[in-house]
Design brief:
Elements (H helix, E strand, L loop, with lengths): L18 H10 L3 H11 L4 H8 L3 H5 L10 H4 L35 E4 L14 E4 L1 H8 L3 H21 L5 H16 L4
Antiparallel strand pairs: 1-2
Helix pairs in contact: 7-8
């Protein structure tokens, strides 16, 4: 029996591209590195949008699984992936940015954009409806864990009250916005 073909997964050597990567490059007419830099980094496209452009699943490009030694395309090509709480401020270096869950303060993990009010209940991607959570806290929030839900409500109320109060001059419209946002967070219903 041929010892080279045992059905085992063989990792692509560093510096080489998989056949699927080369196929996508031919379809795009450019390298993945150039396309990634232009659309994901410079134009700030999201991960889903880039995956749709490339015609592959988002996890193939962005998700690395250390347990199975499966590397994402971004890791294989040594591409710099933005994290959810990365900002556009060029004065802060990546070592100064903290990737922390807003509930448990776990750091250096991939963060999910968790909806306070789910999409099916009318929640959208408004600032006051999205929390940056680790997968564990996201799961707890989705399952209505009382402690997680209470903490999430506190985080959202504080963050949004602070944002509204600190921006611009005091006005009736600003106070009305604050009341509306706080009511939406407290009742967990879109008004």
């Amino acid at each position: 029996m041929n010892s080279e073909n045992k059905g085992q997964f063989r990792q692509t050597p560093p510096g080489q591209k998989t056949p699927k990567m080369r196929e996508v490059e031919i379809r795009l007419g450019r390298t993945l590195e150039d396309d990634f830099r232009e659309f994901y980094i410079e134009k700030r496209w999201g991960q889903k949008r880039l995956a749709k452009r490339w015609g592959v699943q988002r996890n193939l490009i962005f998700a690395t699984n250390p347990r199975s030694a499966r590397r994402s395309w971004a890791k294989m090509l040594n591409l710099d992936v933005r994290r959810l709480n990365d900002n556009d401020a060029s004065d802060s270096s990546s070592s100064e940015r903290k990737l922390t869950c807003e509930i448990c303060s776990t750091f250096d993990t991939f963060l999910d954009g968790a909806h306070w009010i789910s999409n099916r209940n009318g929640g959208g991607t408004q600032r006051y409806n999205i929390l940056r959570l680790c997968p564990n806290c996201h799961r707890k929030l989705d399952r209505d864990d009382p402690a997680t839900t209470t903490h999430a409500k506190e985080v959202l109320l504080f963050r949004e009250a602070k944002r509204v109060i600190e921006t611009g001059q005091d006005s009736r419209a600003k106070r009305q916005e604050l009341v509306k946002v706080c009511e939406t967070i407290v009742t967990r219903r879109v008004s």
